[in-house]
Inverse folding.
């Protein structure tokens, strides 16, 4: 059970949050120009990293804000959290 | 006999308070303060249970939660019965009833004991090699295997007790209140840390609290005296919360601990009513100090499992703490000094020690000399090679160990005894540490795993950290806690210790025997009857990893989870395979540390609290008017309102007819409502719905369809433009939360540039839908000031209005195809407005209808219900709803997916109407649709999604999805049921009033 | 030829105190080259190797396993086996597996304890009822033995279920597949390993794949902790770690690896003699031959390889268990654990060739792969041997995520267990 430091609310129990998958996958600006392959890449293909991963979380039972998290998926250690649109504070 | 066994001198036992209890239908007495185990031992009872596989007689082995053998059924056949309870953990109370498990007819004479005779053909994993012939017989074999397996019996009725959860947030949580735990708690609390100290026992102080030995002293006081003062001091500290009878079950990441606080299990049953039985503590600690101590190791030799064979430390605890002698002629068998402490305790009470068998050749400690002075024969460099006695040990035989400890030499000597105390040294209780993700290291000198790498802000101290000597414990506790808490003041000036023990040990994991291993039964896992030869067999058969051996032999898989024997299993593996202990690692210690009651984990989330009930503001009226309800998500929705003795079908037919003939009223409050505001609100809707929204005039409503990014229909509903930058969106009942979540996601992460704000207002409004030819008349009576003329208030438009001075929103929208109004009003006025409508509709036979009728009415019109007619595999094109998919819009959620090679196929499943050949025959929802019944394998074209008997059309109607259905209008298809085939014709999904005459009729 | 296992061999070996049993499988060092290498020594991987050797005569092959065989999801699952899936493709796949299960102990001469005690799925709301009926009708037409039960029939088949209509989500009905049941998970891995080993397959444990060597679009071998192994065909069956291997080959898969938890109670005498699953309140339970209640919890929603999930998931599952079985309130949880499950967006697996020649993936089984083990191995072996899918796994290709031709078992509400 993580303790997540919401960038808007501070430390809260994991049960208040919902994970939203890999971060920094930008929705294509012109989807109609993409091939089926490219669109599938956006829609379904994921890095699914074992190790340090950038991902989206939502404080769904709190401020309802989405934010990003850097987390090591091999041991669930959270390295950093940062707001949408901000640069990741760690590499 | 019992008189000789009880020494009424322990201050932990209240000898003025006699407690009677039943064990295997016989009444016994103990004292307040006893555990069931100590009380049984005081009555001379060792044989308590039978083992899992061989049904061998087993006794009380330990004095704590590590007990593998003495597990019993409490209160058999009562509502408070509990299987597999450790007698060593039960505090006795008046009226306690316990019985032995896994034996028939009795623990003294158990038919299952025949398994012990069959044991030669029941080696580890025997069941993988047999029961395969004849092939169909496995389940018959299995029936008997299942019957003989299992231990206790599950309760048969619901639990009368209640449980609860409690959250605790603290700076420091100390687990275990032995010497080091108490010192740590004091240091933390006195230095301003909000501290929690928990211990699984009913008392503080751990095993030192009853230590009267002259051989270990602190500041020149007997350890227990020093500790009592410490306990007295900390119990007054304001910063410190102390919880006894509280066992930490799990240590999760981020210092999240789960602990069980036992509140009533020690009370007589009649004092438990209306009290919380157990509390699950959910502890978040900034820092965790683990001081869980260590568990004494048994020794592995032939027949090491007989009743009367116990851990040496347990014998000491029973005599020192409970005043109970475990025998009258005791032998101790050890490889280290701690058994001599037990010897001293026994000597002090005058209990006969027949001999001490010590693996070590050289013993050089004060305490051993003292024991020897008492004329006790010590067999140095010896080992026990066998034991005797069926229901209780009565003899052992011993032999001299060879120099390397691998074999035995010389003659066999037999010695009499009625109790054998064994000590194989100590294993640090690192279970919680490893659960938290901690990494262990192996210490060669004394063959123990100790904490190495901490994954969170925590520390292990005392013997769970591998500090076994008193001096070491105190010195290291002081220094490591100071460092861990970053404090200068330890609260302790100087602590001087004296110990008469030294730490030498002669560790032999599997003691040698004069017999070949194949002829021995040296138990490693007592409960599961896994022996040393089983482990060797597993290795012989190629199971090399510790996890393989564990699974193949079931070592460590009992209810004690191998607290005693896992280390020996590892040791025997490395000795046999010739590898190093540290290389194997350990098996994973899985939570919980001790078994945790389901009820405790669940707490109050039972019965009506299992999940919240969402009720509409009009709910009470529905109840009062005999409604049946259906669950839709968490909502309770009125399903239908049976009158007199109507069944569901009759009620729905009546309701449906009334709604079309005159007037119907529906509570639509459960529909999701999202308030959307902002200068980019129209653009936002353009992006999330498939159709165009920019041109929707203020005061107008529009139906919208929302897709997933994969192109499949996700949700639908009517959205109304309340103002230039203000919309109210409705969603399906079940989809409301997900839709809001999805919209927020896109808004915040993909389109942060849009000026849009979303709020859920589902619960803020009651929504009442009045429909039918007389709806206009009824609504005009309820809201006389509102101009309901078609010119002023056409279909798909909205008006602000007031009912009795209360603002409300009226939409003229329809899900039934009838002229209808939807009144939205502040939730707390919902019921009164509903009643007003009923009153106003009295003369028009206004008929409340539920969800079933709503479904029927909309099906007559061919309107879909997302989730019933769709299943996340259908696009709007599949639903023949091309009209709502904007061709002009450059993009919307899911648009791109509509043009993939599979989604553009012509022969996808498409929504159609279905009419049965026999108009009276109603199809089963979910029934499959085929064209050719003779084809094999039969090809399923689709299925019936919605099906009703329409009282308005006087025939059966259905919606379904059919492969290529769009182009099959008029074609005959078959619904193959179990017992018949039903002929149907593909029809237009709009069955009633395709032209919309009813909707547009001048009323 | 290995010693045959039987009651006679047990008796015979009893005379020599079981000291003459031979190894169930050898523990060889890898050769320099194999005709095919299977990455992943779980049930699916070992079954793949077994059928490659048995049906496709590929004997010069190896299974490489990072840890110990059967140590991943094979050894961590709740062992439910059923084939009552909605879609034709799924029904074909899982029933193929079920048919193999029915003779597997005899085929392997290893008792996998496949016990056809039936699997019941419960309906708790009207949409559940529609969905379960839809599935039952489809099953019947696909020749799968599922029947729909009303509430009374549910109660009769499993009397300890609380079928009171007053509970929060009352049981409205259910389906029953009698041929479905459970098996002994470890035995499946060990039985296939023993069978494969006998045909000459090298089972190499403690051998972690570190890289995939390719020449253009063709594979050449794998880098492992035990050195380079040359091969033209690599079948990856790495479950939760599929993406990790895919990333080595420069591929991305439509997978997310999430924690899935399960737990057992302390063992008790027989109390429930079937498998009961409930998707709506998320609880499923059976009782092992040892007597433990085996309870499956759900997945967390985040990616994790830690083999640990959150307590809330376990608590939520037990809430549902006590809702349906109030008599279990005083039972106690003995052990809980987690696995890593790789989940496809449509909750169906991938058994497929890839864009790289000689590289095959068998993954995406999510929470329900155990039941498919024999069928999955058989079909994957066929795919690797022929470089073409069998018709039963043709639908489970990777390309479906591009075309949109998904096998959506989510949509059909049949959460895959």
């Amino acid at each position: 059970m993580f303790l997540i430091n919401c960038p808007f609310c501070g430390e809260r129990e994991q049960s208040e949050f919902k994970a939203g998958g890999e971060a920094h996958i930008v929705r294509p600006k012109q989807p109609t120009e993409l091939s089926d392959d490219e669109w599938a890449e956006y829609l379904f293909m994921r890095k699914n990293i074992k190790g340090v991963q950038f991902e989206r979380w939502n404080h769904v039972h709190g401020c309802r804000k989405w934010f990003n998290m850097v987390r090591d998926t091999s041991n669930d250690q959270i390295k950093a959290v940062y707001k949408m649109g901000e640069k990741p504070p760690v590499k | 006999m019992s008189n000789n066994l009880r020494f009424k001198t322990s201050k932990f036992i209240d000898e003025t308070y006699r407690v009677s209890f039943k064990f295997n239908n016989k009444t016994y007495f103990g004292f307040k303060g006893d555990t069931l185990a100590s009380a049984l031992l005081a009555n001379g009872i060792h044989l308590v249970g039978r083992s899992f596989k061989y049904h061998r007689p087993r006794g009380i082995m330990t004095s704590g939660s590590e007990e593998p053998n003495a597990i019993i059924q409490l209160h058999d056949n009562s509502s408070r019965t509990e299987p597999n309870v450790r007698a060593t953990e039960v505090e006795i109370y008046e009226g306690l009833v316990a019985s032995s498990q896994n034996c028939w007819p009795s623990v003294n004479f158990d038919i299952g004991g025949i398994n012990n005779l069959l044991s030669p053909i029941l080696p580890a994993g025997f069941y993988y090699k047999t029961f395969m012939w004849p092939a169909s017989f496995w389940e018959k074999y299995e029936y008997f295997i299942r019957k003989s397996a299992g231990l206790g019996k599950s309760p048969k009725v619901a639990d009368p007790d209640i449980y609860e959860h409690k959250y605790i947030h603290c700076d420091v949580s100390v687990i275990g209140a032995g010497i080091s735990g108490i010192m740590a708690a004091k240091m933390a609390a006195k230095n301003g840390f909000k501290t929690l100290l928990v211990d699984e026992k009913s008392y503080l102080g751990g095993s030192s609290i009853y230590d009267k030995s002259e051989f270990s002293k602190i500041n020149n006081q007997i350890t227990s005296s020093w500790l009592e003062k410490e306990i007295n001091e900390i119990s007054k500290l304001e910063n410190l919360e102390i919880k006894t009878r509280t066992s930490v079950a799990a240590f999760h990441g981020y210092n999240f601990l789960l602990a069980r606080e036992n509140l009533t299990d020690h009370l007589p049953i009649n004092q438990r009513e209306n009290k919380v039985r157990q509390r699950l503590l959910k502890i978040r600690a900034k820092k965790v100090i683990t001081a869980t101590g260590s568990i004494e190791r048994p020794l592995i030799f032939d027949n090491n499992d007989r009743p009367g064979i116990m851990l040496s430390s347990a014998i000491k605890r029973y005599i020192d703490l409970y005043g109970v002698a475990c025998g009258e002629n005791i032998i101790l068998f050890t490889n280290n000094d701690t058994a001599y402490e037990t010897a001293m305790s026994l000597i002090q009470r005058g209990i006969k020690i027949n001999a001490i068998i010590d693996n070590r050749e050289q013993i050089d400690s004060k305490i051993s000399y003292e024991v020897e002075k008492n004329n006790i024969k010590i067999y140095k460099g010896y080992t026990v090679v066998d034991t005797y006695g069926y229901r209780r040990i009565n003899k052992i035989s011993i032999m001299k160990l060879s120099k390397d400890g691998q074999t035995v030499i010389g003659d066999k000597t037999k010695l009499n005894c009625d109790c054998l105390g064994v000590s194989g040294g100590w294993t640090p209780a690192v279970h919680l540490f490893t659960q938290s993700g901690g990494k262990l290291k192996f210490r060669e000198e004394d063959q123990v795993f100790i904490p190495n790498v901490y994954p969170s802000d925590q520390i292990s101290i005392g013997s769970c950290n591998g500090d076994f000597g008193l001096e070491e414990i105190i010195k290291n506790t002081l220094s490591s806690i100071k460092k861990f808490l970053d404090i200068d003041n330890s609260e302790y000036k100087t602590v001087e210790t004296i110990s008469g023990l030294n730490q030498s040990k002669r560790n032999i994991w599997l003691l040698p025997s004069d017999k070949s291993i194949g002829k021995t039964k040296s138990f490693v896992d007592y409960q599961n009857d896994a022996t040393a030869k089983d482990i060797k067999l597993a290795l012989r058969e190629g199971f090399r990893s510790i996890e393989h051996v564990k699974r193949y032999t079931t070592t460590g898989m009992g209810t004690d989870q191998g607290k005693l024997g896992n280390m020996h299993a590892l040791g025997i593996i490395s000795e046999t395979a010739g590898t190093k202990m540290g290389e194997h690692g350990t098996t994973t210690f899985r939570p919980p540390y001790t078994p945790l009651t389901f009820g405790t984990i669940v707490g109050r989330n039972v019965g009506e609290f299992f999940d919240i009930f969402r009720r509409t503001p009009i709910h009470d009226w529905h109840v009062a008017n005999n409604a049946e309800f259906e669950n839709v998500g968490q909502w309770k929705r009125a399903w239908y309102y049976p009158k007199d003795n109507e069944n569901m079908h009759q009620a729905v037919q009546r309701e449906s007819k009334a709604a079309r003939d005159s007037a119907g009223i529906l509570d639509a409050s459960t529909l999701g409502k999202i308030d959307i505001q902002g200068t980019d609100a129209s653009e936002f809707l353009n992006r999330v719905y498939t159709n165009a929204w920019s041109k929707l005039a203020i005061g107008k409503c529009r139906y919208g369809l929302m897709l997933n990014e994969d192109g499949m229909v996700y949700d639908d509903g009517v959205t109304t433009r309340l103002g230039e930058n203000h919309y109210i969106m409705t969603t399906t009942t079940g989809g409301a939360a997900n839709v809001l979540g999805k919209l927020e996601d896109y808004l915040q992460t993909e389109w942060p540039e849009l000026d849009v704000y979303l709020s859920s207002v589902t619960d803020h409004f009651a929504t009442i839908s009045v429909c039918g030819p007389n709806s206009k008349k009824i609504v005009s009576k309820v809201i006389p000031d509102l101009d309901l003329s078609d010119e002023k208030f056409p279909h798909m438009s909205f008006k602000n209005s007031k009912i009795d001075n209360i603002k409300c929103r009226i939409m003229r929208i329809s899900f039934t195809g009838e002229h209808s109004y939807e009144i939205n009003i502040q939730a707390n006025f919902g019921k009164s407005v509903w009643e007003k409508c009923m009153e106003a509709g009295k003369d028009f036979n206004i008929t409340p209808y539920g969800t079933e009728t709503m479904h029927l009415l909309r099906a007559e019109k061919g309107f879909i219900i997302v989730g019933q007619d769709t299943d996340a595999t259908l696009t709007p094109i599949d639903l023949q709803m091309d009209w709502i998919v904007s061709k002009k819009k450059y993009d919307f959620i899911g648009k791109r997916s509509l043009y993939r090679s599979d989604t553009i196929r012509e022969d996808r499943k498409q929504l159609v109407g279905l009419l049965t050949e026999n108009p009276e025959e109603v199809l089963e929802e979910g029934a499959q649709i085929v064209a050719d019944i003779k084809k094999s394998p039969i090809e399923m074209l689709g299925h019936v999604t919605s099906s009703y008997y329409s009282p308005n059309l006087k025939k059966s109607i259905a919606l379904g999805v059919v492969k290529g259905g769009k182009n099959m209008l008029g074609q005959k298809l078959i619904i193959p049921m179990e017992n018949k085939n039903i002929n149907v014709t593909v029809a237009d999904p709009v069955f009633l009033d395709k032209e919309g005459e009813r909707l547009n009729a001048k009323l | 030829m290995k010693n045959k296992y039987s009651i006679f061999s047990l008796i015979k070996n009893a005379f020599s105190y079981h000291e003459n049993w031979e190894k169930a499988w050898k523990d060889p060092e890898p050769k320099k080259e194999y005709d095919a290498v299977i990455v992943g020594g779980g049930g699916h991987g070992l079954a793949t190797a077994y059928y490659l050797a048995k049906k496709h005569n590929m004997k010069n092959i190896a299974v490489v396993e990072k840890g110990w065989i059967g140590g991943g999801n094979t050894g961590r699952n709740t062992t439910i086996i059923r084939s009552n899936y909605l879609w034709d493709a799924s029904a074909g796949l899982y029933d193929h597996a079920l048919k193999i299960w029915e003779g597997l102990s005899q085929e392997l001469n290893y008792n996998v304890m496949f016990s056809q005690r039936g699997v019941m799925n419960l309906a708790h709301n009207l949409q559940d009822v529609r969905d379960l009926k839809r599935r039952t009708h489809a099953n019947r037409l696909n020749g799968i033995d599922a029947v729909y039960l009303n509430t009374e029939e549910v109660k009769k088949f499993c009397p300890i279920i609380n079928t009171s209509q007053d509970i929060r989500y009352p049981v409205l009905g259910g389906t029953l597949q009698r041929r479905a049941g459970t098996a002994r998970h470890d035995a499946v891995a060990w039985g296939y390993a023993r069978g494969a080993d006998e045909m000459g397959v090298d089972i190499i444990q403690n051998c972690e794949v570190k890289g995939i060597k390719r020449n253009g679009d063709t594979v050449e071998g794998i880098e492992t902790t035990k050195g380079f192994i040359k091969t033209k065909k690599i079948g990856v069956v790495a479950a939760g770690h599929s993406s990790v291997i895919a990333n080595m080959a420069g591929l991305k898969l439509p997978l997310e690896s999430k924690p899935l938890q399960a737990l057992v109670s302390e063992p008790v005498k027989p109390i429930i003699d079937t498998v009961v699953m409930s998707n709506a309140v998320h609880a499923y339970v059976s009782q092992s031959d040892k007597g433990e209640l085996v309870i499956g919890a759900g997945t967390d929603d985040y990616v994790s390889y830690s083999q640990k999930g959150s307590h809330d998931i376990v608590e939520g599952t037990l809430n549902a268990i006590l809702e349906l079985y109030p008599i279990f309130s005083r039972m106690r949880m003995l052990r809980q654990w987690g696995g890593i499950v790789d989940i496809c967006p449509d909750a169906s697996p991938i058994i497929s060739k890839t864009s790289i020649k000689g590289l095959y993936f068998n993954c995406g089984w999510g929470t329900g792969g155990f039941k498919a083990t024999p069928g999955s191995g058989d079909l994957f072996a066929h795919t690797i041997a022929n470089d073409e899918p069998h018709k039963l796994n043709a639908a489970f290709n990777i390309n479906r995520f591009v075309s949109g031709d998904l096998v959506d078992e989510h949509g059909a509400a049949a959460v895959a267990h």
User: Anything to note?
Assistant: DSSP finds 25 helices and 51 strands in chain B. The longest strand of chain B covers residues 276-290. Chain B touches chain C through 110 residues (CB under 8 Å). Residues 162-294+428-499 of chain B form a domain with the FAD/NAD(P)-binding domain fold (CATH 3.50.50.60).
